[in-house]
Design a protein that fits this description.
The chain is an all-beta fold and 496 residues long. The protein has strands at 10-12, 14-23, 37-43, 55-58, 62-66, 70-76, 83-91, 100-105, 108-117, 123-132, 141-147, 154-156, 160-162, 173-181, 187-188, 193-195, 202-205, 213-214, 219-226, 232-242, 245-255, 259-265, 276-279, 284-288, 295-300, 310-316, 325-329, 338-344, 347-348, 352-363, 369-380, 389-397, 410-413, 419-422, 430-439, 451-456, 460-463, 472-481, 490-495.
């Protein structure tokens, strides 16, 4: 029997779970008389790992549980009928599932774009996009699931696909988009193309769609990869001509801004008499925590599931807040104001003594490090080699930390087809204006939330067609500068 893999639930007030693979013979417990469920689960698991396949479906996804607190779905592996994978969205408080964006934990978030129940409590429709990820880039899952929404007869498994945060120059992260023909007649397909403001950040491969005739009920696939060229939010689109129209999906991702790099050198147990450099791009740098006031910086290959390649922990005395200055490094029991622990490739210092200088430190609202430079010279405990570990951490380091000004004025006309108009940012380094349509009031939304309306380097306007009646939306406009800094949002309400 094949091995089973399980990714645990992530729970902080709300739950987004991508559960492990199971034998597919389990019955669904929800009623089968519902519209077809459409969706996909992409991931950052190494492509050669059998336990974590890319999954998609259209009409063959099981509705396992459906109530006002929890929606659970079962995907079947198209390459192996004996395997399935489940995903669940659940509130752990007393509130019902409702439209909105929720950050669950670390980098995990899910966006309920639509959800509705009838008077008897039966689920009638939903549209949810999601990202399930921990501190590290490995084993992230992302995608979209939906049911009962307005659909084209030939449609993508995901209409709006957002990648996990990916460094500039990273190994490309691939996601399998499926195109399904539910029209009842054969459909001739044109060539799959990438478009939009940042199309160059994306790539296509393994395309079984372009130039084919897709018979009724059939599905073709194309893999879409993301590796950003510039920091900040990045947006594009995927389109395939079908008859006289084009079926399209919006693509989005974000790259961390600035330079993130950990350098160590010296004749010591960590560097082994060489200069060792780990940096965003060749590797993925990420930040975690080991308790109040601590900051842990690590590097890892994007598709790796092993222990972090390098690790640097900073812990101020008595869980105080990190701040700029030069500090003695040692054990807190000896009164040292800063504990600095460093390891590389499973070689741990086992306690350090020395000094460290923190500069250009800025903290994010949640207490994590937004940017910093840390220079240190420390001796490893019990190291028989003669030299100290000399090193430097750059975390999101950049000279430009000023957000651009917004694309004012922004207005929305609701006469006839809704239309949004935006101005040009007065910031000289403004690069991209991103316009998104976000269901609900927009709380917690980012420049990759919701659906794409437009992305432009200039003032402009765009119509927003095909919206269902009786819904509330937020038209949200951000400006991104050449560094990747993002302006505050300009929001306008839209009720259909």
């Amino acid at each position: 029997m094949p091995q089973s893999a399980r990714t645990p639930f992530i729970a902080v007030g709300l739950v987004l779970g991508v559960l492990g693979s199971t034998l597919a013979a389990q019955p669904a417990v929800a009623a089968d008389d519902h519209p077809p469920i459409i969706g996909m689960i992409a991931n950052t698991t190494a492509p050669d790992r059998f336990q974590q396949p890319q999954l998609y479906g259209d009409g063959d996804i099981d509705l396992v549980t459906a109530n006002r607190k929890r929606i659970e779905l079962r995907f079947r592996d198209p390459a192996n009928a004996d395997w399935s994978r489940e995903i669940a969205f659940e509130r752990t408080d007393s509130a019902d599932l409702s439209v909105g964006t929720v950050t669950v934990e670390h980098a995990s978030r899910w966006e309920v774009r639509d959800v509705a129940f009838d008077a008897s409590g039966t689920l009638t429709r939903f549209d949810i996009t999601f990202l399930s990820a921990g501190y590290s880039p490995a084993n992230a899952s992302f995608g979209q699931v939906r049911m009962g929404e307005p659909e084209q007869a030939v449609r993508f498994s995901s209409t709006d696909l957002t990648w996990p945060q990916t460094a500039v120059g990273s190994t490309r992260i691939w996601a399998t988009q499926a195109l399904h023909n539910a029209s009842g007649t054969p459909q001739r397909l044109g060539r799959a193309v990438l478009g939009g403001m940042h199309a160059g950040d994306f790539a296509l491969t393994d395309d079984t769609c372009s130039g084919t005739t897709l018979v009724a009920g059939a599905t073709c696939t194309v893999r879409v990869g993301f590796s950003p060229r510039v920091g900040g939010p990045r947006v594009a689109s995927l389109g395939i001509p079908v008859g006289g129209t084009t079926v399209s999906a919006s693509l989005a991702g974000t790259s961390p801004v600035g330079t993130s790099r950990l350098t160590v050198s010296g004749d010591n147990w960590i560097a082994l008499n060489r200069t060792r450099v780990d940096a965003d791009g060749p590797l993925a740098m990420f930040q975690g925590s080991n308790g109040p006031g601590t900051a842990v910086f690590s590097s890892q290959q994007v598709y790796s599931t092993t222990t972090a390649f390098s690790r640097l922990e900073l812990a101020p005395l008595d869980s105080s807040v990190l701040h700029d200055g030069t500090f003695r490094v040692g054990d807190h029991e000896d009164g040292a104001p800063l504990l600095l622990d460093i390891s590389r490739a499973s070689r741990d210092c086992n306690g350090t003594q020395g000094t460290a200088t923190i500069s250009d430190l800025a903290l994010a609202p949640n207490g994590s490090v937004d940017r910093a430079r840390v220079r240190f010279s420390v001796a490893c405990g019990n190291d028989t080699r003669p030299g100290p570990v000399s090193g430097e951490l750059l975390w999101r380091s950049r000279t430009d930390v000023t957000a651009p000004r917004g694309a004012s004025p922004v207005s929305v006309s609701t006469t006839g087809t809704p239309k949004v108009t935006w101005g040009k940012s007065s910031s000289g380094d403004a690069a991209t204006t991103i316009v998104r349509l976000v269901p609900g009031d927009g709380t917690g939304a980012t420049p990759t939330s919701g659906s794409a309306v437009a992305a432009s380097s200039a003032a402009g306007s765009a119509t927003i067609a095909g919206l269902p009646a009786g819904r509330q939306y937020s038209v949200m406009v951000w400006v991104v500068d050449r560094t990747g800094n993002v302006s505050g949002v300009l929001r306008r309400s839209l009720t259909t």
